[in-house]
From TrEMBL:
<dbReference type="Pfam" id="PF02153">
    <property type="entry name" value="PDH_N"/>
</dbReference>
<dbReference type="InterPro" id="IPR036263">
    <property type="entry name" value="Chorismate_II_sf"/>
</dbReference>
<dbReference type="InterPro" id="IPR050812">
    <property type="entry name" value="Preph/Arog_dehydrog"/>
</dbReference>
<dbReference type="InterPro" id="IPR036291">
    <property type="entry name" value="NAD(P)-bd_dom_sf"/>
</dbReference>
<comment type="pathway">
    <text>Metabolic intermediate biosynthesis; prephenate biosynthesis; prephenate from chorismate: step 1/1.</text>
</comment>
<keyword id="KW-0511">Multifunctional enzyme</keyword>
<dbReference type="InterPro" id="IPR036979">
    <property type="entry name" value="CM_dom_sf"/>
</dbReference>
<dbReference type="GO" id="GO:0005737">
    <property type="term" value="C:cytoplasm"/>
</dbReference>
<keyword id="KW-0520">NAD</keyword>
<dbReference type="InterPro" id="IPR011277">
    <property type="entry name" value="CM_T"/>
</dbReference>
<dbReference type="Pfam" id="PF20463">
    <property type="entry name" value="PDH_C"/>
</dbReference>
<dbReference type="GO" id="GO:0008977">
    <property type="term" value="F:prephenate dehydrogenase (NAD+) activity"/>
</dbReference>
<dbReference type="InterPro" id="IPR003099">
    <property type="entry name" value="Prephen_DH"/>
</dbReference>
<dbReference type="InterPro" id="IPR046825">
    <property type="entry name" value="PDH_C"/>
</dbReference>
<feature type="domain" description="Chorismate mutase">
    <location>
        <begin position="1"/>
        <end position="90"/>
    </location>
</feature>
<dbReference type="InterPro" id="IPR002701">
    <property type="entry name" value="CM_II_prokaryot"/>
</dbReference>
<dbReference type="GO" id="GO:0004665">
    <property type="term" value="F:prephenate dehydrogenase (NADP+) activity"/>
</dbReference>
C-alpha cells in the first residue's frame, strides 16, 4: 500500500510542477499585456473581460467534470497576482504638461503609495512634510496637483495654509471625512477642487478593484483626467455627495471600528487564552477575531481620530449602545418570541441581500478554512 500511495503522490508532484510551468508562462504573458496597456493607456482592470473569461472557464470546467468554483478560485488568485505585476510596467501619463504633483504627507504610508503610483505614471512628485515645510512655497509654485494626506485632526489646519497655490492647480485631499475638508479647500483655493477618499489601506498589492470615492468641489472638467488616471491604475471610481459619504462612513468606519475596539477591550478584560479560542474556532469566528485583532495591530491615534472626527459619529455610537440595551432586555426577560420577531424584522429589512451575503460569506469562509494549518 505504501508503495502504491507513493507512486500516486509522485504523479501528483509531477502534475504540480506542470502547473508551476503554466503559471510561469501565464505571468510572463501578463507582463506583455501590461506593457501594451501601459503604452495605450488602458486600465489594468477590465471588469467585462474578467467576467467573460471566468464565465468561459467555468463552462469549460463543468464539461470536464472539474468543479466550476475550483477553476474560478484559482484564476481569481492568479489574477490578483497578475494585477500586482502589471503595475510594474508603469502606466500611461494622461497629463504630461501638468507640472509637479506635490503630496503633503507623502512620507506617510498612504501618501507613499500614491507617490509611487504617480511616479510609475511619469509625473514629477515632490513631498512636503513638517520637516521641509519651509520649502513649500517654492514647491507649490510649480504644482499642477496638490494632494493633502495628513491625519484627520490636522487636515483643515493644513488646508488653511494653502492660499498661495497657482490658480489652475488642482487641490484634493484623501481624508476619510469629506464635507468639512472639501469646504475648507473651496474656501482657501479658487481653482479646481475635489474631495477624494481611497477606501483602502496602503498595503494593497495594486489598485485593481479598489474603490476611490470622489466628491465634486469645483472645476470638474479640469480634474477629470485625474479620475481617468485612477481608472488606468485599476481603481473603481465612486462619485458621491460629501454629506452622503460622511453619513455612510459613520456606520462603515466609526461604528464598526468602535464595536471592534469594545469587543477587543472586553476580551482583554475577560482574559481568555487566545490559542484555546483559535483551537475552538469555526472559520467564521476565526475571521471575526482576526478582524478585531487586526485593529489593535494598527495606529491607535488614527482610529481615535476616525471615531472622534465628528459628533455625528458619537451620537450614532450612543444610539447603537441604546439598541444593544434593548436587545439585552430580551435576554433579561427570557423572551424568545420577541427575539424571533425582531430577528425576522431585521431579516425582512435585509431582503435579498441576506442570501447574497450568505453566498459571499461562504466563499470567504472556505478560503479562510483553507489557510488554517491545524496541528
Amino acid at each position: 500500500m505504501a508503495k502504491e500511495l507513493q507512486g500516486l503522490r509522485d504523479k501528483i508532484d509531477s502534475v504540480d510542477k506542470q502547473m508551476l510551468d503554466l503559471l510561469e508562462q501565464r505571468l510572463k504573458l501578463v507582463e506583455e499585456v501590461g506593457e501594451v496597456k501601459s503604452e495605450h493607456g488602458l486600465p489594468i482592470y477590465a471588469p467585462d473581460r474578467e467576467a467573460a473569461m471566468l464565465a468561459s472557464r467555468r463552462q469549460e470546467a463543468e464539461k470536464r467534470g472539474v468543479p466550476a468554483q475550483l477553476i474560478e478560485d484559482i484564476l481569481r488568485r492568479v489574477m490578483r497576482e497578475s494585477y500586482a505585476s502589471e503595475k510594474d510596467s508603469g502606466f500611461k501619463c494622461l497629463k504630461p504638461d501638468l507640472g509637479d504633483v506635490v503630496i503633503i504627507g507623502g512620507n506617510g504610508q498612504l501618501g507613499g503609495l500614491f507617490k509611487k503610483m504617480f511616479e510609475l505614471s511619469g509625473y514629477k512628485v515632490s513631498v512636503v512634510g513638517s520637516k521641509n515645510w519651509h520649502e513649500s512655497d517654492s514647491l507649490f509654485a510649480t504644482a499642477g496637483l496638490v494632494v493633502v494626506t495628513v491625519p484627520i485632526n490636522k487636515t483643515e489646519s493644513v488646508i488653511a495654509k494653502l492660499g498661495n497655490l497657482p490658480k489652475d492647480c488642482i487641490l484634493c485631499d484623501f481624508t476619510s471625512i469629506k464635507a468639512k475638508p472639501l469646504q475648507a479647500m473651496m474656501d482657501v483655493h479658487a481653482g479646481p477642487v475635489v474631495g477624494l477618499h481611497p477606501m483602502f489601506g496602503p498595503d494593497v498589492p495594486s489598485l485593481a478593484k479598489q474603490v476611490i470615492v470622489h466628491c465634486e468641489g469645483r472645476g470638474a472638467e479640469s480634474y477629470q483626467w485625474l479620475l481617468n488616471q485612477f481608472a488606468i491604475w485599476g481603481a473603481s471610481l465612486c462619485p458621491m455627495d460629501a454629506e452622503q459619504h460622511d453619513n455612510g462612513m459613520t456606520l462603515i468606519q466609526a461604528l464598526r471600528h468602535f464595536t471592534s475596539f469594545a469587543y477587543g477591550l472586553h476580551l482583554s478584560k475577560e482574559n481568555p487564552n487566545i490559542d484555546t479560542l483559535l483551537k475552538l474556532s469555526s472559520p467564521i469566528y476565526r475571521l471575526e477575531i482576526a478582524m478585531v485583532g487586526r485593529l489593535f495591530a494598527q495606529d491607535p491615534d488614527l482610529y481615535g481620530d476616525i471615531i472622534l472626527s465628528s459628533e455625528q459619529n458619537v451620537e450614532m455610537i450612543k444610539r447603537f449602545h441604546a439598541r444593544f440595551g434593548e436587545a439585552l432586555a430580551l435576554l433579561d426577560n427570557h423572551d424568545k418570541t420577541a427575539f424571533v420577531e425582531q430577528f425576522n424584522a431585521v431579516s425582512g429589512w435585509f431582503g435579498d441581500y441576506s442570501q447574497q451575503f450568505m453566498s459571499e460569506s461562504q466563499n470567504l469562509l472556505k478560503q479562510a478554512n483553507d489557510s488554517i494549518q491545524r496541528s
